Known about the structure:
By secondary structure, the protein is an alpha+beta fold. Helix content is 41%, strand content 21%. A seven-stranded mixed beta sheet has the order 1-5-6-10-9-8-7, with helices on both faces. A hairpin with a 2-residue loop joins strand 3 (154-155) and strand 4. The chain is rod-shaped and about 120 Å long. 27% of the residues are buried.
Amino acid sequence: MKEKIATLLQEVEHFKAENAAQIEEFRIHYMGKKGVVQALFADFKEVAAEERKAMGMLLNELKNKVQEKLDAAKNEASASSQTKEHQLDLSLPAATHVGGRHPLSVVRNEINSIFARIGFSISEGPEIEDDFHNFTALNFPEEHPARDMQDTFFIRKNPDVALRTHTSSVQVRVMESGKLPIRIVAPGRVFRNEAISARAHCIFHQVEGLYIDKDVSFADLKQTLYYFAQELFGNETKTRFRPSYFPFTEPSAEMDVSCKICGGSGCNICKYSGWVEILGCGMVDPNVLEACGIDSKVYTGYAFGMGIERITMLKYQVNDLRLFFENDVRFLRQFESA
Length: 338
Ligand code: PHE
């Protein structure tokens, strides 16, 4: 019996199952009711008393070995059936191409976050506006050329309704709401009836800003926009303000930044001036404050507005604005890591 168990141990040791059926066969052969192990236990009764202890240990060893083999074979089978059936390989990359944000969104988000860092929150408003919010409240005289059909898309049947030409209309809505002080940026899509070219489009995007509180000065405006230009274009960026005109601000200015491409020495991007214009700004005209129900004797404020397309073109040296709207993936893919 001793030799028999020793041979069986060897046999079990060398057992290798190739499929579930073989495992089951192995189990029945050894562990079944009429199986090898059971039979040995029956024989065990005949074993002489002095050999019982040693034989009992051997028999248990065999039984445990068979169980061990069975467990291992089952584990292996279930692991391999998983990969075979589901072809599950968790180490594979999730996707080969994940895409990226549109360059205009990248730059808009960057502008928003620069202003968010100094306490500006975001306001949005409707793209379809009425004359009051787009023009009248902003101190556009009745006969002002910007109201002309040339620049504005009006609804033919109702000239009081138009597509907004700037997001200043959002600023009017925020001022009307009556909560002061105000410190907001208004990003959004705007519309102007212009011929499409490399430098202009009838649909484009703006971020405008508005700050209204007691004692807001032109110095505050300059410092805020100086900080903004440095954050957006880099610390070496210089700014300059030139007098300008907008109906809704007095005084008004345009801000130039030193040309990022040539560093100010002159190139075709800055038309050899060393400067490029990036935004319009000024102190909110008291007429605008009053039209929106704000006491202009107590409150002052500044406003500014910029075109996202123009800033993106400067930042990434894009020379044709139409590229932003054509959705050519060869163009868009260049901004994937931006
Ligand atoms: N609303 C102006 C425009 O669309 C920009 C601007 C905003 C200028 C605020 C000055 C102050 O051109």
